[in-house]
Amino acid sequence: MHAIVIDQTDTPNEWTLTTEKPAGRESIRLFKGRVYATDATPTDLGLDPGDLVDLAEVAQGLRRLGDRVDALYIGRSELISAVIHAFAAGEHCFVFGPPGTAKGGVLGAIAEGIGGDFWRILLNPDTERPELVGAYDPAAVAKGEWRRRLCGLATCEVAFIDEVWKGTGQVNNMILDALNERLVKDGENDLRIPLLTAVGASNEVPMDKETQAAYDRWLVRVGVDYLTQADDIRALIKAKAETAEITQEVTTSGIRLLAAAAEFLALDPPEDLIEAAVVLMSEVLASGRIVSNRRLKATIKLAVASALIHGESPQPKHLNVARWTFWSDPDEEMDIRQIVLAATDPAAGKVLDLEALLQALKPSTIDLGALSPSARAEVTVKARKLQREAETVLKTSDNGYHSRLEKVAEDARAIVDEILDYI
User: Domain 57-243, what architecture?
Assistant: First the structure.
C-alpha cells in the first residue's frame, strides 16, 4: 500500500491519499477509482512511515526527469514540458506534427525515467482490436469463456499511439474507453488497466463529429515541426539521445498519487485562480474560440498539477498550461498561446512577441541584393529597435527568459551587422 498526506490547512494529516479504499471511512474517489482521499490518518490505515510517499519528492523527480530528457532532445522543450504535465495530471497528450520529430523517442525516454511499461503502435485502417489489447485465449474459448491474453494497451503504463486517427470506429472506441475510463472489455467484464498517460500523434486533426468527441478527450495538445535553425541542426547532428541511458527518477505509483493529488486539490481551487480562469475564458471566447466545459475543468486540474511540479501553491500564473488545452485547430495554436501567456505571464507574452518580430525580419536578409537601399535601411531600423527592446526586457525579466531574450538581441544585432557589411 502507498499513501501520501495532503495538508489542506494548518492541521497535519488533514487528508490522506491511498491506493486502497479505506473500509468504514468516508472517502473521495480519484483517478478513476485507483486512488482515494480520506480523512483517515496513516495510523488508521495501518501505514508505517516507510509506506508514505513524499509528494514533493515525486514532483522533484518528475521535474528532474523532464530536465534530463530536455538536455538530450534538441528543440523539444515544449513537447517535453507538455508530456511531463500530462503525467502529473493523469491526462493524455496529443502531438500534432510530421513523422521524424522525436515524438516516440521523447515519450520512450520519459517512460524509462519512471520505470513504466512502454507500448507503442502505429494505427492504420487494417489495425484490429486484438493488436491493441490481445487476442482471445483459445483455452478459455474452448470452455466457452471469451477471455483475452491481455497485452499492449491493456497492460502498459505509458502508451504511444502513432497516426491516432487512422484506426476504424471500433478501434477508436476501444482506445477512447481505455484513455477515458482506464478500462478494456474482456468478455463480459470491464477490466481496469494500469495506464498512466498516453500520447497520440498525427499530422492531422479529426473533422468528423464522431472523432471530434474522441479528440476532446486528449487534454494536452502541442505542435512540433522539423528543426530549421542552423544551431539546432548542428546540435541535432551531434546529439546522442538514442544511446543515452535514462536514470529512473520517480515511480509509476508515485505519479499516480501525484495526479490524484492534483485532482483532489482542483476540487476546491483558490479563489484567485478561479477568477483568473473566468477572465481567461472570457478573452478566449471573445476571440471566437469555443472551449468545452469539461476541458475548462480539466485545465484547472492541469494548472494545479503545474503548481505541484514546481513546488508552489496554485496561482493564476499556473493557468499558462491553457496554451496546451484551449486550441483545437493547429492554425489557432499560436493565437491561443499569445492570449494565454499575455493573461497569465505578461513577460512570456512579450518574449513571444519579440521572437515573432525576429522571425518576420529574417527572410529579408536572405537576398540583400534584391532589396532597395531604402528597404535595407528600413530593415536595419527595425532590427535595431528589436535589439533595444530585447535588451530592455532582458534587464527586467526573470532568469527563465534570459537565454531566449539574449538570442533575440544577438540575432537582431547580427542582421544589422550583415546589412552594414553588405553596404
Answer: 3-Layer(aba) Sandwich (3.40)
